[in-house]
Amino acid sequence: MEVVTRKLDDRLTLQIPQNFASELGFEPGTEVSVTTLGGTIIIRPARQPNLLDKLLEQVDESNLHGETSTGPASGREEW
Length: 79
What we know:
Elements: E1 5-8, E2 11-14, H1 18-24, E3 32-37, E4 40-45, H2 51-56
């Protein structure tokens, strides 16, 4: 598919066809990462926050559990 670039203020813009945007989950305001590689423009969703950090934000006293026994040491483990 071919599209045309347009001038907007002092920038050159490129419209992403709706079927591509829908496939990638892009909506107005979606942050993207734009890079080039060997004369090709690569557009990806912006890097998402670390999933572990997101999950840890949800830990509180109501969902925190105690230690779990896994049995006696079977090698050189030190506790």
